[in-house]
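[Automated response] Your request has been received and processed.

Submitted sequence:
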Amino acid sequence: MTDTAFPGAARRHGPDNRLEVVAAVITRESGDFLLAQRPAGKVYAGYWEFPGGKVEHGEEPAAALRRELCEELGIDVVTAYPWITRTFDYEHAAVRLRFFRVTQWRGAPHGRELQQISWQSVRNIEVAPVLPANGPILRALDLPPVYGITCAAACGRDAFMLRLERALRAGLRLVQVREKAFDTETLCAFAREVVAMGKHYRARVLVNAGIEVVQRSGADGMHLNSEQLMAARRRPDCDWCIASCHGASELQHAMELGLDAVVLGAVASTPSHPGVTPLGWTRFESLVADCTVPVFALGGMRGGDLEQAWRRGAHGVAMIRGAWAG
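Generated structure:
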């Protein structure tokens, strides 16, 4: 198997004192993912974790992932996407965990080291205990790959609600209410409508406004624009929080605040920001290479860009017009 099956395989990172580890989020079409139990005789024996292991000296992370999954589970990876990088300090070691999402493989996973394995659902974890470093990953897995951004002012409120219901019926599960032209009362009323419809389809709704609008509308959380993000000194008091970023300093601040995800762009030219020079995919990939939170690619995105975004290390895509087309 060639390394072209592993986007991001050529990345190299500077040495430090942390142990380099790769971990695989092996996911079926249903959304279930695989956890493995650490066998007797190992540190944290009995704990459940995402399969993986140490990166050997001079070994690329993608190659380490392929080797470890063959040794541990007896599978050959066909498609794996770079995703999130986390650091964690255990009592026995300080580690850097490079997570890949594995979506295609050959062979049936089985415990070649006599370890137990189990397919799990993110909203119904039935095994315990899970390694502490994996907690944020489980939360990140609860975020869908497409983030739809409203445009009611542009297309008309009633027309937009029809588009919203059509998108929710088709599977959209994450929505940002972003209506800068609305006054506070109009925005609150509109957000309440979107939240009500979102609840019917089990979709999360975040509001791009102050915390008052979030609370009054009953939204699931808050979306911070870049100015709000850089002014924040702590994470807003809401369940879910995502922020807009345009460069490295904003990404770093969002990670320091412990936000759930970020939106990074504009990746490509977009009519909503005609004067903005796009990042392009190469710069986007460089910026997200070591991100500790999921990143949505924004700017000129369409549903067909999702594969490209995954290959570049994104969690998914955020879209305005693209989310409501069709």
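Summary generated for your ticket: The chain has two domains: 3-134, 146-324. Residues 1-14 have pLDDT under 50 and may be disordered.
If you did not submit this request, please reply to this message.
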